User: Fold this.
Amino acid sequence: MSPRKKPKMEYNVLHGKNKLGFRLPVSWKVDMLPPSPLLPLGFPVDALNNALDKPLGMEPLDSLLHKHDSVILAVTDYTRPDVEKFILPVLMPRLKGKKVTILVAAGLHREMSPSELIDKFGNEAVDFPVIQHRAEEKNGLIDLGRTPEGVPAVLNRALVSGSLVITLGIVEPHQYAGYSGGYKTAAIGCASEETISSLHGIKYTDDLRCSPGRLENNPFQQALRSVGKKIPGIFAINIIMDEGGKVFAVGAGDPGEVISKLGKTAFEHYFVPLDFPVHAVFGGTPASKSSSLYQVTRAATYVAYNRHPVPVEGGFIFLFATCPEKGGMGEGERRFFSMMQKSYSPEELLSRARKDGLKGGEQRAFVLSWVLTKFHLSILGSKMCAEEMASIHLTPLKDIDTACFAVNEKFKNRPVRAVVSENLFSRIPVLREALE
Assistant:
């Protein structure tokens, strides 16, 4: 689908929990990316119940529950949209009489606060035991050996406790796996630091086949599935949902089959093919991604870290985000920010990473640095000061007027072409030639 023109040069994008309006020069040729061409499901609860009764590649959920007295619900954390608010009211009546434990798949992110748990999971955060996975706590982990790819499968003990493991997740673009969902909630969200670092090592991070929207011939996705298959009988429940809670697709059953099926729908929902590169990309970011630079910069690498980047060489990416947590508060986020600050330049960081390798969290510094060697990136509307931005090699700009001036100065004597995405995490421009 081609982007549609907006009659006025006024645009509104997400800025965390709010929207932010701005103008662009009338002389520019600007395209506003259209909303998803998919229609929300008319009866999403019925669709989910049907998926639970007729899952992909597995017995119906109720049949599996008859064989287990206890259930581990592996759920997403604060960095993902609240799919649990839709799934749990449908799922929990089926779990009546079972011993249920909620396992928050935090990976190397920070722990969620009590108020965040209640806001995301509702009464279930009070009525059932909640374990927040910690990748560094060895006592809570078990070594399940290595995968054929050589990845150590060291995972949360609860996943192999004899309980039925049900994973909840959203299918959305992921930097390396192609899409989140499938095995990812358990195989990364509930994995050890050793496993996370191996999967996010230079072997996969420096391979452009491991890219957003790509499931086939993706070494990271294959390694991820190998880790996940170490956990017996995972039952995955995944949905495609927007920030407003509208559900576009559901899937349940074998994690590999679920992600393969939903991935086809996800591409049409998330990606917008373009016939042309642009000088500037302007993108809003939702509340779930606007909290820290670690999360926010994913939007930049989605559009630029591939063989056919959307911006022209030397082009600009402008993200509107609040970043109240600055670089981020989890161990992975702190490693990312520290690695960026300690590097003399993006080029030096890439060279050092290829020589010394990466720890979990540092992969974000690697892909961001790759982007920064070719493009300018600025965060607008942030709580971070210019010095903090410059310390990690971003281009600190005061406001939208300064941003437009920088683009005009860079591409003077040339007609500027730009795209605007209300939410660059849900409507992502991609060059059509990259799909061929």
The mean pLDDT is 92. The CA atoms of residues 36 and 269 lie 5 Å apart.
